[in-house]
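Exercise 4. Each item below gives a protein and its sequence. For each, produce the structure-token representation.

Item: Protein kinase domain-containing protein (Aphanomyces euteiches).
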Amino acid sequence: MAVDLCSTTLTGISAKSSSFPWCSIWEGLGNRRVDIAKLKKVDCIDQTCQFVLKSIADYQATLASTGISCTVTDTSTGSLINITVLGSVCDGIAVTKTAIPSNFQNITTYTPSPISFLTPAPTFLSTAPTPAIPSTTTTPSSSGEETKSSNSTGIVIGVSVAAIALIAAILFVIWRRRRAAAAGQALPSNQPYGRLNSPQPNSQKPSSGAGTTSSSHKDGNAFELDKLDLDMHRVTWNEVHLVKMLAQGAYGEVWLGEYLDGKIAVKRLLPTKTTKQDLQKFIYEIHLVSKIDCPYVVQFLGVTWSKLSDMMLLAEFMDGGDLRQVLEANNTKRSFTWTHKIHCALNIAEALVFLHSMDPIVIHRDLKSRNVLLDADFNAKITDFGIAREVDETTLTAGIGTYRWIAPEVLVYGHYSESADMFSFGVILSELDTEIVPYSDLRNGAGKPYQDTALLAKVMAGELLPSFSPDCETWFVHLARDCLALDPLDPLDRPTAM
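Answer:
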């Protein structure tokens, strides 16, 4: 019997729309009916609803690859239209609503139900996930039917995967808007504060006088910043020379530098991250690391600036690279042995003991393999942490998605605790075992790697955990799984660093 993939999928998506019910598109979509006139009045002026419409329209591209044209009835005109029309229905209509409607503020940020109707229950901690493929019953005399059924199966899988991505993308946008709204309450100003220069080696000039607490923007506005006690750690600007860039992240970049004839690491903000809010967070981070003196945390050396928007954090240089680089190189070199790995894990744990024992407690917030640095002897130290760390679209999607190391409760509720650091530690333990990027070996129902959006949704829902190899030591796997426990409301579920 023929499968109406269009009706089946639109009905399923519509039935699982509880996370964004204020959009009128859902009123008749399950019955393949839309009211274009109402969409223009209600949905087109809402940022999320516009995204929903465009996402559904984009879904037709996947259906088209299977030879299917998904149509719906426009109840305002009685005409039959292709769902691609939904992608342009809002053209020329300005968005006036960007916040979640007040009567829907208590809706859960993310629930697993919107994608569960299309996917089987996942296998946790699987080393080789087996895609769930619908079975096909045939008889020896029905080879034609078998081929037809197999083709239908492939189409169903492909369309289902696309639908998962559609729902996950919409949920992510809603989550992002809530996080952005919450973050916007901290510091109201997003105006650029100066401009981050890109001085070349030997081109810096010494600053004149002590640092100030304000800097004038090109339009004449000046913004006050709290420098705390950074003046006591300040070194002369022209004594620091930048040699080459080592890495770039969502908010800053790290350079190899020279200071007093020695190699150092220099961290500074990106040119696009020089608002008052960005600079103040960077100052808070520098102030925090200046208070930490631990052999398992990269050593703070000082800070320098010519104007505050040029501020640079100076730290010790670790010549062994970061842990992710070491693990990737180990595919061929095989020099990073299990003895080194255990030693590395112990170093990270010692760093967490120190941070979580401070008063007040310091939570790393962004513990991942890129933020574990090693020296030539594979001694490890953690870096790049502090109160400046936030979970938003930029940090989640830059490079290898940061969400792969973040605890589900942080992704969903934005709630950080020592327990969240321990979850990240568990992810790193899985990396030490498999040497691969977390979740990169897992496959969806079609046997293909998860797209970032779909993977993020499943991580947020607590439906996936990193893998471990079959020959990994049992005690190591048990330790990692304890750290990866999914009930953060019970502090006993995850061990502490102490």
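Check: The longest strand covers residues 240-248.
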